[in-house]
Amino acid sequence: MQDLNVQVNEALERALSASLAIDWKSDHKGVKTGWCRLPESAQLLPAAEALSRLGGRLSTVTAYLAQRYRAEGRREIAYHFDLDGTTLTLTIDLPLEKAQVPSLTPLFRNADWNEREFMELYDIEVIGHPNPRRLFLDESIEPAVFDRLIPYSTLTNGAGSQTLWEAVMARSGKEKSE
């Protein structure tokens, strides 16, 4: 049987008609991971289709805006796939304004909430999403609330929800409840 690394590399290269650099590593326990940056967000859907055909599943998706990316006018999304115990992460760069990604829900139903979260909290347009309703926030609250109201350092220390709630209430003129 062919090595998983080779299978993934060949499947992605066939799907994208391009050569990709995947950084494969194994830790001291033999756990294997791979990281790959897709040059264009349009390559995400064919890459996900290739991974689905290999029996992969989408574990989760992470959108983030590190300070160094903000200065460059871009953000990053990481799509984490499980391939029989091996994690492959595909990352894409997006502009801060008018960012678009294709929906992966036709391939992986669990992409639904992650993609709705992108639309609501980061104002990323998810093309072809079957249910673009908001998950958490009222429709009257402007999109991209995470980018505007929560500093990255606050988000990473686990205080994001409280900080967001207080910022929303302050903007609406309501006092926070004790």
TrEMBL record:
Record-annotated NADH:ubiquinone oxidoreductase 30kDa subunit domain positions: 41-142
Top-rank lineage group of the source organism: Bacteria
Matching Gene3D superfamilies: NADH:ubiquinone oxidoreductase, 30kDa subunit
Name the record gives this protein: Hydrogenase subunit CooU
Taxonomy of the source species: Bacteria, Pseudomonadati, Thermodesulfobacteriota, Desulfuromonadia, Desulfuromonadales
